[in-house]
Amino acid sequence: MDLARELAQLLAPDRVLARRIDRIAHANDASVYRLVPRVVVQPVSVEEVRALFRFSRSHRIPLTFRAAGTSLSGQAVTNGILVVVSRHWREVRVEDGGKRVRVQPGVIGSVVNQHLRRHGTKIGPDPASINACMMGGILANNSSGMCCGVEQNAYRTLVSMSFVLPDGLALDTSEPGAAGKLAREAPGLTAGLSELRSRIEANEALRNLISAKYRLKNTMGYSLNAFLDFSEPLEILSHLMIGSEGTLGFIAEAVLHTVPDYPLKYTGLLFFPDVPQACAAIAALRDSGARALELMDRASLRSIEDKPGVPRRIRELPAEAAAILVEYQCRTDGELARAQENCRKLLPTLPLVESPTFTDDPDRQAALWRVRKGLIPSVGATRQRGTSCIMEDVVFPPGRLATGVAELQELFARFGYDDAIIFGHAKDGNLHFVLTQTFQDPAEVARYDGFMRALASLVAVRHGGALKAEHGTGRNMAPFVALEWGEDAHEIMRDLKRLIDPDGLLNPGVILNDNPQAHITDLKSLQIIEPEVDQCIECGFCEHLCPSRDLTLTPRQRIIVRREMARLREHDPRSPELAELEADFTYDGIETCAADGLCATACPVGIDTGALVKRLRRQSQSALRHEIARLVADRFAFVEGAARGSLRAAGLLRAVLGRFSPLPDLPPAASARLPRTPRSSATAVYFPSCVSRMLGPQNSGEAPLTTLLTEVSGRADLSLWIPEDAPGHCCGLPFSSKGLDQAYTVAINRTVEALDAWSEQGKLPIVLDSSPCAYTLKQSGPDLAPRNRGRLERLRILDSIEFAHDEVLPRLPPRRLRGKVVLHPVCSVHKMNLTGKLLRLAEAYAGTAEVPVSAGCCGFAGDRGFWHPELTFAALRVEAAEVAAGTYAGYFSSSRTCEIGLARATGRPYRHIWHLLDEATRGDRDSADAAVGQARS
């Protein structure tokens, strides 16, 4: 059977992915399991999902749904049909003034919270992965988090749900008559749910067990508490869907109650002599009003004690010490004052190793949270090459937490996990632990098997806890569901699965699995690959920032494919499978990577997948091309002139040939003459980027950016000097992005030497008008010759946003223009932490300013957008729709090439932020308003 061809009759062919590279890219999630799907599909509607269910039943092929694929327990892998909803199910709608929110499964949790922020609310679940995980996973796993507890998870905050069952029945619980529809169209299901409820009601021991289990965090097995909390079959069914891990149906939409987003916080780090004494303090801290209590054992503290920004005193703690990160969260100043007073009264009664320090300063609070959030990266970054990073979460009854930690540490020692660390949400008795493990040989697999069985016995049998608190059961705990729940509850769960999915085709093997070895079956081994990315733990945190995520591959997928290529190369370097992957990877993995480095900002271990792509581009370049590029860098002034001439010629050719021109739509050429500026009175050196020197203004008659910077600065009594020999110098970014390292090295060293001379050895600051160039220069130290590293260190390099915010704005009082403007912070602005300054700058000179919730990398990537415009349009698809839905007086950014991409993808006239400064400070207010009116039109 040609599976892809048949599925293409149900879905558009471009949403049926059957190439080897697509299937390999989706074979892994964040867990230690790997299954290669037969095909990957991307439905866009409930009707297409129903068609997929019919196809699955007709052909007896398993079906698995995936949102972000950040599952740590193996819920999102399959050797059947993988249904990916992350590209097309991203709608969010705030309702009832922020008291409720309607979400689809492909929207990221933090994006939902961004929509809710203006209302002072957020969703209840607050998993640590909220910046990457999607609502489909949050709902299907009943995720919680640091403050959520059992009161504010998805189960407790659910208002209504739209879902599709394996037989194709689609229900919206908010619709009048939905309960009657279920009874009419699925009488057997309705009766079966009622019968299961009656069995539980008649079994007192089981009722008591369920009630006790759900007083704790618990995602082990199905949500049997639904049978006790509700009596109507529809309500039971919709709440069973929460935490069902995609094994009972597809959640198409959900409406959730929101919870307060507390604006005021009071945070501190407490050190105790040992874990038992730390655990003994938890009840008092909880009763004092603390909302977050994060326990860290000594091993976890030791793993991060040498990291930058970590308090030095951590290194001096006793060998058995433990810590609790405490945070009070409040709505009003009065609440905050009471919390501070409660804390002050409590602290003297605690057995602390040293005096604690609490703070309400956001920067210091962020530093304390970095201690806690740095634990997973610390283990992931130092693990042995080829090993997997495993994170599990268990729950002990609060009174048994201290004993549970001690016995868990003993298990680590017994099974040789010397690098394991323990931390977690102590308020809920919820512990996470991280360990590293290789699955390369049977002995190692046996070690892991023995540990998991001992863990199950310790937590579920000895202490009556839960083997899964918030990550979902998954493949790794499915063999132990009966051990934890007992045979009566296990049989209820099995009957429930048979009732709703009688064919057993929906995500089989997850939650319930007849294979007692399921937790050590289909394990993935991490092949050793290029050092730039070898530390990847495949968590998927990077994916939401990647501009090619909706076009080809994400950073995680690029790494997964590289690992598969390494495996095939080791087995048979001439295999056709390898040749196929290599051929497709050229476009999917290399040509359509923006190499923007944003992925590193979200990666727990700081991996910049763009560095890998640059390596591969470098390897693909011939020696001749490297030499030509080096000559270009060495004679850049000549190249600039030639480029301007070429742009003029290209413009003429396109004017003559129109759409039949073989050239892409290129911008106009800049004037060869730069503004004449005096050196004697200079307060700063202005180094125009080569892009500003080669590309002319977007609109005819508009002043060049070089003119804007010099004139606006002059209005602020700041004199910018453009060196006469600035042409011919470049930061080298156009070369490094293509892997032309020799040329980049020549360019960056020549430029740093010139900057040092122009600035009189650092006496004058240096202003750049392109954010990517400013970032490249600031980060160029490791690439410089030793003599130039010292020169760079004494230079004060300012992006034009910094210069405008710090120097111009205080000297030119705000003269706000009417209307709202929209901003696009480019990747380098994010990496330089200048988004806040960009926003404040725009707000000073416009009525209001906003950054779209979906703003990310534009995908233009220097000049790549000229040759691969599909990358830019894919990267900006959601942002373009968001911008189109608003009414703005202006559109601004800080990189000429990015502005070209933004303008093309959105159809709006994006310009440099200095255009706003110019319009707001030029002449009287009427002329400024007229300028904005022109921009609006």
Determine the CATH superfamily of the domain at 261-438: FAD-linked oxidase, cap domain/gating helix
Task: Please count the helical segments.
Answer: 43
Structural class: alpha/beta
The share of residues in extended strands comes to 5-15%
Q: What's the average pLDDT?
A: 92
Number of strands: 25
Instruction: Give the N-terminus to C-terminus distance in angstroms.
Output: 55 Å
CATH architecture classification of the domain at 261-438: 3-Layer(aba) Sandwich
The CATH class of the domain at 261-438: Alpha Beta
Low-confidence stretches: 924-937
From the structure above, extract its key features:
single chain; 937 residues; alpha/beta; Vanillyl-alcohol Oxidase, Chain A, domain 3; 7-stranded antiparallel β-sheet; 6-stranded antiparallel β-sheet; 43 helices; 25 strands; 13% strand; disordered C terminus
Q: What do these coordinates show?
A:
By secondary structure, the protein is of the alpha/beta class. Among the domains are: 261-438, FAD-linked oxidase, cap domain/gating helix (Vanillyl-alcohol Oxidase, Chain A, domain 3); 527-615, no CATH class; 631-804, no CATH class; 814-936. Helix content is 45%, strand content 13%. The protein is built from 43 helices and 25 strands. The strands form 5 sheets. Strands 14-11-13-12-16-17-15 form a 7-stranded antiparallel β-sheet, with helices on both faces. Strands 5, 6, 7, 8, 9 and 10 form a 6-stranded antiparallel β-sheet that branches. Strands 1-2-4-3 form a 4-stranded mixed β-sheet.
